[in-house]
Amino acid sequence: MSIFLAVVAFFMAFGALWFTSEVARRLDRRGRATLKPDLAPMQESLRHAEKQIRELAHGLDAAERQIRALNARSGVLESDVQASSGGVKRPETSLSTLDILRGAQRFYPSETYKN
């Protein structure tokens, strides 16, 4: 009887060791258990995409600042040209480059693609 109990205890100890090693293997660096380890590549690509979006947003902000500076400088130059040409005024468009970048003119698909 004691041999049977020893064998059962031996298997229980190995089972507990296996269970503990599986739990330790599924912990990430911060000590949280990862539920689905197959999602790690997708999470990494998501982080990479978010980083690219942040970089593009910073680039767009810099482009907007440059466009504003160019519009201000061209306004000054136009006023100088108008003053020197005797006040002949060019018709202004209601849409600036900055408006186009921000999406002032939206694209609406034709009726064919509506549900």
Q: Number of helix segments?
A: 3
Give the % helix: 55-70%
Sequence stretches where pLDDT stays below 50 over 5 or more residues: none
The coarse overall form would be rod-shaped
Say how many strands there are: 0
Q: State the end-to-end CA separation.
A: 76 Å
- Series of secondary-structure elements, N-terminal to C-terminal: HHH
**Number of structural units classed as domains:** 2
Largest sheet report: none
Range of strand content: under 5%
Topology, element by element:
Blueprint: H1 2-25, H2 40-85, H3 97-102
Report on this structure.
This protein is mainly α. It has two domains: 35 residues; 46 residues. The protein is 66% helix and 0% strand. The chain has three helices and no strands. The longest helix is centred in the middle third of the chain and has 46 residues. The radius of gyration is 33 Å and the shape is rod-shaped.
